Structure formats: C-alpha cells, structure tokens
Amino acid sequence: MGKRVAVLLAGCGVYDGSEIHESSAVLVHLSREGAQAEVYAPDVDQMHVVDHVKGQPTQEKRNVLVESARIARGNIKDLAKLDVKALDALIIPGGFGVAKNLSTWATQGKNCIVSKEVEDVMKAFHAAKKPIGLCCISPVLAAKIFPGCELTVGHDTECEKWPYAKTAETMKELGCKHVNKHVTEIHVDVKNKLVTTSAFMCNAPIHEIYDGIGKMVKEVVTLA
C-alpha cells in the first residue's frame, strides 16, 4: 500500500485559487512515487474571483471547494473531514488562492491570519511528525505558523527572474531562515519536516518548475 498524501487546494486558477500546473505536477509526481493522493479544500467562499484574461476582479462569487473540485476531477473532500491519523503527509501547491483563501497574506503580508481550519491541519501534521511539502507562495503559511522554521521561496533579491523575491524578506521578518535555491532545487527543514521549492515564484521554463516540484514530492514521500 502506497503512502497516503493529502493535497490541499485553494480554488482553481493562479490569480484567485490554486495554480493549476503546480497542482497537476504534484498529483503526477505523487502517482509516479506510488503514493495515493487525497485532495481536500475548505468549504468557504473565495476572497474574490479574477477574470484570468483581463487580470481583473469580477463581481462573481465562487466557492473554494467547488472550484478545487475542477482540478481534482470531482474526487475531493471538505477539509473539515481530514483525518491526520489516516494520512502520511500533506502537500500544499501555490497560487494566489493560498494568500487569499487559505490566509490573508495577499492583503496583510506578515501580519496575515491563516485560516483556523488550515492552521489546525498543518499543526496536526507537524505535531505527528509527518512531512509537509510546500511550493511557490504556500511556504508563507509555514512561516506564519512555525516561527524559526527553514524555507525557500527561491531567491531574496528581486530581479526579472525572481519578481516576488520580497516575499523572502518578509518571511525573514517573521523569524524564519530563508535559504536561496534555484527553481529545480528544494530545501529540507529536517527538524520540522518541511520540504519547500519555489515553483512559479521564479520566472522559469515550465519544465524546470515541474522538475523542482517533482523533487519536493519525492522527498515528502521519502520522509513519510
């Protein structure tokens, strides 16, 4: 029997939900590692809905669980029903939904609040010494919940290749150790069993992002 890994989604679409390529890469790599993915999302309203053609918010209202079900091909459960004892690890893909629907990072940065449901689940995996994999913007959740942890969101110096590098500085202000890594690399916080990779925090070819996520997933399954 393969490892059972919870994948926590935050909607469907980079600007208001989970990043679809990252989510898909996580599911593909879990399958390759012989692990069983169990997809979850909170049953809450999205912060807002973004028209991905115009890049502008609309007046629409959508539900995070309903939208995440698109990526999960309908095979999804309400986060409220997650049982940590029955699972071996947790992975949270990135996308602005992490900063908008799972937390208030998008509007409040380091002063954000992580959704209680999400925080409780992450703390439960951590307390059970079960690994947590995070990519793109999702390491900010760990930065907020586990002070002093080690993480990467790529590089801490902003440039064309690293347009979101200020995130690393904000994480340092929360008392975390940020480790600069290339998009195809991961960082492992051995003490906290956190595995992170930068994914779309880097302006890189999609296959490099895919490969970095693959290393993260492989390490999470190994640690589980």
UniProtKB/TrEMBL annotation:
SUPFAM superfamilies on file: Class I glutamine amidotransferase-like
Q: Which gene carries the instructions for this protein?
A: Gatd3a_0
Note the superkingdom of the native organism: Eukaryota
Q: What is the protein name for this chain?
A: GAL3A protein
InterPro entries reported for this sequence: Class_I_gatase-like, ElbB
Kindly give the NCBIfam families that the UniProt entry links to this protein: PRK11780.1
Which CDD domains does the annotation name? GATase1_ES1
